[in-house]
Specification:
Layout: H1 13-16, H2 19-28, H3 30-34, H4 45-59, E1 66-67, E2 76-77, H5 85-97, H6 105-130, H7 135-147, H8 166-180, H9 183-197, H10 201-218, H11 226-251, H12 280-290, H13 305-318, H14 325-346, H15 376-399, H16 403-431, H17 437-444, H18 447-456, E3 461-467, E4 471-472, H19 483-496, E5 503-504, H20 510-517, E6 538-544, H21 550-556, E7 560-565, E8 568-573, H22 575-578, E9 600-604, E10 621-622, E11 628-634, E12 642-651, E13 660-667, E14 673-680, E15 687-689, E16 692-701, E17 706-713, E18 722-730, E19 736-738, E20 744-747, E21 750-753
């Protein structure tokens, strides 16, 4: 059997290009389709941010490229919000043209994403018809490829990565070019790759590299279109990336973004994972048979059992059909080779995952840490080729009157639909498990309306500061954010139209996050954020009072309570009260500024380690890259049982300067290592004093054991830590140290200005 190069046409073709997928969406996602305004499809941090950004952007945001309602007062570029800039622009145009749809903003968001299934089906159906596969099997194969796609699982995670129509559209354009030699299909590939970049940079890179490799590799299998295919291949990579980077360069006003995010080269697809299907009937079957939990990895990328079965049966049949070899080479080989290269990258077989030092020389590659998703093109290519070969096997069985092979083929098809049905049923449960709390609180419940009403009846504020502080994305300054607090701030912001200070961001400016981190600080440290505010209006604090830390409580103590309801309370924070030295008034003044040692175990200013940069004095300890750096040892028998605090200051201005672990590790009386007692991440320090971040560990001490205080830097770091002022003391003790500068002293390692 050869691939026929004529395109099927007919009056029903346009209906078959979308109706089957539409009906299957109705069958598998009825609640989401018929009640799209009732659900938020992802209850996680990424999904909730995407909903919030979409709603605020299409209805209130004034700037096209800058989102004004997160990271206040700086805002953030839309390319760094994981919110699909293409979708944001589409939504804005939609509500400008059809403003009556505004009450159904969430419904529009959900339906726009569901429509991607139908669009993906459209391109796959057209591709199979281009290969002259019968109407029925074209419908069946297209549906199974779409609804078994591992990429569709990102609907329960990163919405912008779930645009699964883009890779099939590249495949269709490539096949059409082979059959027609029309360069318009190459232009379509370049256009889709450009759209992919404006959907998500990862998706743009995946689509553009896959498209570019496919067209360039095809040049080795053709003579008539060699130059044209190479030109299209290069254009598919250069033009989309160029347009994206130029747009970003011209519109991004935020500087000092981290170019070496932690973890690059670590998140790749294990070889066995792309062969193990974790969802549907196959996933349940494997779990029971091998008694092993389903693979849990960040980016689902696997080949469903249905396509493996199709490939196995079809391959044995087609190798005997010698008249199809030339056609198969021209159609399949470029796709297999290009997608195979990306699969090798996804599984780390190029060695990048094992040789992280290579990333020191390939700076742009550092931004792409999650390599598993680069296997998605291989899934699509493997699926369409296996379906084609399976169709050859079925048709040959029919022509030869082989009933058993034909019956087996139908059983496999039924299995495929059951597999897809169960996988999507489970996904549908996830996508409809969270009520649309914006609609609920806005229409039926009074909770957030009451909160908003209280705000409107009090002094006007310029922004919301939620406590616990939500500040994620930076690799030097972040916070262990509270999911409940962040979700609450989204809802309050939606009702008050106030921007949010901080947020869960992606590669934010390190300069801005350092300033934002000091929004929550001890009262005697400088708070530079007040110098960046556009006015002197107060800040509205939204506090989850059961979750705030001691440092955050110190901010609340400087505020005026205005409302308390359930777990959340509202406070008004005046700018003049934000940074104050009033806390020093409660401290006892010690004449002569002598060191008071009440439970002091150890102190070191590392003066024997000369350093041009120091927290105070002339020395600081410099760690060695990738090593476990021993700072101090508590020997057995030197201390009594009790609770101890180990703390130090770490210089935070170097690249990845605080991305590591401050560790307390324990050895028993036989000198056997017992493990880590506790640890802290310096990047999550709540106290920042200019260029230094404070970190501490609290631990229980067994006097017969040995304890080591260790600072570990990860292997991928370019630079080392600088550590100063290491203190080890009993919890509850008060230690005051005189400084050579008579205008300040240390109170339990914190530097405090002297009172007049």
């Amino acid at each position: 059997m050869t691939i026929n190069q004529t395109t099927f046409g007919g009056k029903w073709n346009w209906l078959l290009s979308w109706v089957p997928a539409f009906l299957l969406v109705l069958t598998l996602y009825p609640e989401l389709f018929f009640h799209p305004n009732d659900f938020l499809m992802d209850a996680g941090n990424d999904g909730q941010r995407a909903y919030y950004v979409f709603m605020m952007y299409v209805h209130h945001n004034q700037n096209v490229f800058q989102f004004e309602y997160l990271n206040y007062p700086f805002g953030e570029h839309v390319f760094y919000l994981d919110a699909n800039p293409l979708l944001l622009l589409t939504g804005r145009l939609l509500f400008m043209v059809l403003p009556f749809l505004s009450p159904y903003t969430i419904a529009c968001f959900n339906l726009l994403h569901l429509s991607m299934l139908i669009i993906a089906y459209f391109f796959l159906y057209q591709l199979f018809r281009e290969w002259r596969i019968s109407i029925g099997y074209s419908v069946i194969f297209s549906l199974l490829i779409v609804f078994l796609s591992p990429q569709w699982g990102k609907m329960a995670g990163n919405f912008s990565l779930a645009a699964l129509w883009m890779i099939p559209s590249i495949l269709w354009a490539f096949v059409k070019f082979i059959h027609t030699s029309k360069k318009g299909y190459g232009i379509l590939s370049v256009f889709v790759a450009t759209l992919a970049f404006f959907t998500h940079p990862y998706l743009g890179l995946i689509v553009s590299i896959f498209s570019g490799l496919t067209w360039c590799i095809y040049a080795f299998f053709t003579h008539s279109n060699r130059i044209k295919s190479i030109a299209i291949g290069l254009a598919s990579i250069i033009i989309p990336a160029g347009i994206f980077l130029i747009t970003l360069y011209l519109t991004d006003t935020h500087t000092n973004r981290n170019q070496s995010p932690g973890g690059y080269g670590e998140h790749y697809l294990a070889i066995y994972e792309w062969l193990i299907q974790p969802t549907g009937l196959t996933g349940n079957w494997l779990t029971h048979i091998i008694h092993k939990e389903q693979p849990d990895y960040f980016d689902p990328a696997f080949i469903p059992f249905f396509f493996i079965a199709c490939m196995t049966l079809g391959a044995f049949k087609v190798i005997r059909l010698k008249d199809s070899i030339i056609s198969i080479k021209k159609n399949f080989y470029p796709l297999l080779i290009s997608s195979g290269i990306l699969l090798l990258l996804a599984t780390g077989l190029f060695g990048l995952s094992k040789m992280a030092f290579l990333y020191d020389w390939i700076t742009p590659a550092r931004q792409f840490r999650f390599l598993g998703r680069f296997a998605w093109p291989f899934y699509n290519v493997f699926a369409i080729i296996s379906c084609y070969l399976f169709y050859v096997w079925i048709k040959d069985a029919i022509q030869l009157g082989q009933k058993i092979p034909y019956a087996l083929s139908q059983i496999i098809l039924i299995y495929g639909f059951v597999d897809a049905g169960l996988a999507n049923r489970d996904l549908a449960k996830k996508l409809t498990s969270t009520d649309n709390f914006y609609a609920t609180y806005g229409n039926n419940d009074t909770y957030w309306k009451e909160m908003a009403s209280v705000y409107h009846h009090n002094q006007k504020s310029q922004a919301i500061l939620s406590l616990p502080l939500s500040l994620e994305g930076s690799f030097r300054f972040s916070s262990p954010f509270s999911y409940e607090s962040m979700m609450a701030s989204y809802q309050l912001s939606w009702h008050t139209q106030l921007p949010i200070m901080g947020g869960i961001l992606i590669r934010p400016s390190e300069t801005e996050t350092e300033i934002m981190r000091t929004a929550v600080n001890l009262p005697f440290y400088e708070n530079p954020i007040i110098h960046h505010l556009p006015n002197q209006q107060s800040i509205l604090l939204l506090a989850h009072t059961k979750q705030v830390s001691i440092v955050e409580q110190s901010v609340i103590n400087r505020s005026v309570p205005i409302h308390q309801s359930g777990e959340f309370s509202l406070y008004q924070l005046a700018i003049s009260d934000w940074t104050t030295h009033s806390a020093c008034d409660t401290m006892i003044r010690y004449s002569g500024w002598e060191i008071i040692d009440n439970g002091n175990v150890f102190y070191s200013g590392f003066e024997d380690h000369a350093s041009p940069i120091a927290h105070q004095g002339q020395g600081a300890f410099k760690t060695r890259r990738g090593d476990a750096n021993l700072l101090y040892t508590i020997e057995p028998g030197t201390q009594e049982t009790g609770t101890f605090v180990a703390s130090c200051w770490i210089y935070n201005q170097m690249e990845n300067a605080v991305n590591g672990c401050f560790i307390i590790q324990e050895y028993d009386n036989q000198n056997v290592f017992k493990g880590w007692v506790t640890f802290s991440n310096p990047a999550r320090s709540e106290v920042v004093n200019q260029n230094w971040s404070y970190t501490e560990c609290v631990f229980e001490l067994n006097p017969s054991h040995r304890y080591e205080i260790v600072l570990t830097a990860y292997d991928f770091m370019n630079l080392n830590f600088l550590v100063d002022d290491l203190w080890v003391r009993k919890a509850g003790s008060i230690m005051i140290q005189r400084h050579s500068n008579a205008n300040k002293f240390s109170y339990n390692t914190h530097i405090i200005p002297c009172m007049p």
